[in-house]
Amino acid sequence: MPVGLGVGLQLRGLCKSFGGLAVAQDLNLDLPPGARTALIGPNGAGKSTLAQLITGCLVPDQGMVMLDGVDLAAVSQAARVKRGIAKTFQITTLFAGLSLRENLRLAVQEQRGQGARWFGRADRCPEVEEIIEFQLARFGLLGLADQMVGRLAYGQQRLVELALTLCLQPRVLVLDEPAAGVPMGEIPMIVEALEGLPKNLAVLLIDHDMDLVFRLAQHIVVMVAGTILAQGTPAEIATNATVQRLYLGEAFDA
Ligand SMILES: Nc1ncnc2c1ncn2[C@@H]1O[C@H](COP(=O)(O)OP(=O)(O)O)[C@@H](O)[C@H]1O
Ligand SMILES: [Mg+2]
Q1: Which residues is 27 bridged to in the sheet?
Q2: Where are the domains of the chain?
Q3: Cα of 176 to ligand 2 centre, how many Å?
């Protein structure tokens, strides 16, 4: 894919080692606008490390993370968020004692450099309120907007974090195990929320739940020991003998 405007996120030759352990070995990946790519692989494969290299939480030993052809090496984690690279789920980023609406408002105003003004009623910006309203509605959370986040079910808290992230109007969203720890009964609402993500958003979904992966992904990347073992459409991955034998076990037997 050519380097230029509108090409989305590109990873080129990414390498990362922890001591002697190579967890990213010459990784190349494209996440164009609208991508629905899943990253799967056994524990320790390097999936979360890759997510952190994208967000800037970790610095690669070699290689590039590019957004629309621009190398992000010199762009801090916070500045990457402003450019539209977002990652969930980090439940601790929510304030349990504030309402949903207040949590979202705080995040947006902080992103806009208006952090100290969030509690001032008179300072509320109609444009910000509109964004918040829109995202709460997207996730069916409008009815809960004035509830304290700490009182919500765990799955709902994850939806709030998703709504919060989308308020920051990301272009690339990295989801590292969005359903982890969510009680079975609440998983359908997470799946529904992920299915309703904006069409233009580039999504990288890391998960072990093959139902979730096969439901959402248009492209699947299988990672093992810091390398990409295989990638392709869900149908190609489901019938890939090596992938089946080594990493997916019984997952496709049904
Ligand atoms: N900060 C770190 N320091 C040292 N080793 C790490 C660090 N982060 C991850 N690792 C190791 O790197 C490997 C890949 O981890 P990770 O990216 O979390 O894998 P995955 O998300 O696929 O389970 C693991 O062996 C893990 O123990
Ligand atoms: Mg992980």
Answers
A1: 14
A2: 1-84+172-190+201-254, 94-169
A3: 7
Show the tokens assigned to 118.
């969030």
Rounded mean pLDDT, 203-228? 94
Q: Whose CA is nearest to atom 26 of ligand 1?
A: 44
Ligand 1 atom 18 nearest Cα: 48
Give me the residues near ligand 2 (ion), CB cutoff below 5 Å: 47-48
Amino acid type, 104: L
Which pair of structure tokens corresponds to residue 198?
A: 């904006």
Region 157-172: what's the mean pLDDT? 92
Instruction: Scan for tokens 């929320």, then name that residue.
Output: 193
43 Cα nearest atom in ligand 1 = 23
Residue with CA nearest ligand 1 atom 16: 46
CATH number belonging to domain 1-84+172-190+201-254: 3.40.50.300
- pLDDT value for 21: 96
User: pLDDT tens digits, residue range 9-27?
Assistant: 999 999 999 999 999 999 9
Q: Which ligand is nearest to the CA of 50?
A: 1
Cis upstream peptide for 89 (omega within 30°) = yes
pLDDT at site 2: 46
pTM of the model: 0.90
pLDDT given for residue 89 in this prediction: 60
3-state secondary structure of 175: strand
